[in-house]
Write the structure tokens for this entry.
Amino acid sequence: MKRWRGVIVPVVLLALAEIAFRARGGPSDSLAPPSRAVAALLSILLDGSLVVGSAQTLGTLLAGLALGSLAGATAGIALGSSDLLRRMTFLTIEMLRPIPSVALLPLSLLIFGFGYRMEIAVIAFATFWPSLILTQSAVVQIEPRLTEVARLLRLSRWQTAAKIILPAAAPRLMTALRLAAGLALVVAVTAEIVSNPQGLGHDLMIAQETLRPERMFAVLFWVGLIGWGKNAALLRLERRLFAHRGDVDTGIAA
Amino acid sequence: MSLPQVALEFEAVALELGGRTILQDIGFTVARGEFVSVIGASGCGKTTLLRLLAGLIAPSHGKVCLDGRPVTMPSRQVALVFQDYGRALLPWRTATGNVSLALEAMGVPPAERPQAIAALLAKTGLAGHADKYPSQLSGGMQQRLQIARSLAQDPAVLLMDEPFGALDAMTRQALQDEVLRIVAERGATVLFVTHDLDEALYLGDRVVVLDTNPGRIARMVDIPLPRPRNQLSTRENPEFLRLRRELFTAMQEMLA
């Protein structure tokens, strides 16, 4: 029963919201009671519109995340393994990294037009940096004994990367992926609200423009559920993959 | 062509790091199959001696030779066993996988690995632990595993850096005897670094005593105790006790 304790607070809060809304009385264009939000959620689930929106948002999210974190991890391993490369790229990275990814939405729209590609590009840009930085530091922080073992055994560069560096950095790479995935959801929904007419973000905009707050809350709740589910799934995967390793603190939450 | 009788050689070796002299005027040779213990206070550069031989670092002056050729890079002919076994093992690989790493490096075909690994684990007393990860093994077993991995290289020279320093007395004695047995079987040349005088005497054919600041050779003593050695009779041998007293006094004087 212990694991259900966490449910108490949100249920109480929802009940309070319901009571407060009913006590106030009368309809509203800006707020809706939880009961009507739940009804709206059921209706958009049943009419398929939520499924379409979710598929669009998650599809772009996954594509952008895959591109961004794969490129970031690859670059991070290269930079982590070479002081020279690190020194050569330091200034460039520190100048590009602080650009807020959503600031690139107009540019991306200009290049790709509406649709999946503009959103994927911005998500890839956003997730590239944390992947790069975290992977690089993961590689730099690899136990020096292990790199010595690789040298003593005369492992080739390729063998060292595949047999020592990648597996040694893997737990941190998973953490990087989890953080990047969280960021990707934020950027995806933002892109859809600001400029790309598709997905869950666009559904939120429609709900706002048509003055249907119950629908807005339904989608908001759904976005929260997606974020929570994605994080829980990645955490679970992380624990399963690294449970036997003495060098990994699998209790990490982020 | 027969191999030279001298396996390892330090010739007027000095090492400076960051303006500090770590080792100075180190000169000695180790014959093929000889077991030489190196002892000295911490900071005397005993570990550095091993790192020079392993090819992990290069001397500032002089020559370090293996089979008559200067050491310029690591060689799989030389295995190094670290004191901190917990860091030297791959935590994501089982005992089998850790031994396999050395075989993979040697280019042993996959089909031949399982048999070789089983034999090495059996030899180091890990037969029942093949599928365990290092985190599931005790300290003594982890060190056995590191030894098994280094033996998988089939090395002519075994360098051991205070390998039993972190283990309890019982495990330590058991491992001392196992190392002696394995080394005798293979005829390997061993350079064994320790800070424990009894251990140095018990294991070695010869003991090299290092002085500190800068690290240099203070004494070199032959240990003419009969082999195989025995934890009781060897340590009770009058010659063992005499050498122990002699070296203990010498080391006390160095510290003073």
User: Anything to note?
Assistant: The first helix of chain B runs from residue 46 to 54. The longest strand of chain B covers residues 6-17. Chain B has a mean pLDDT of 93. DSSP finds nine helices and ten strands in chain B.
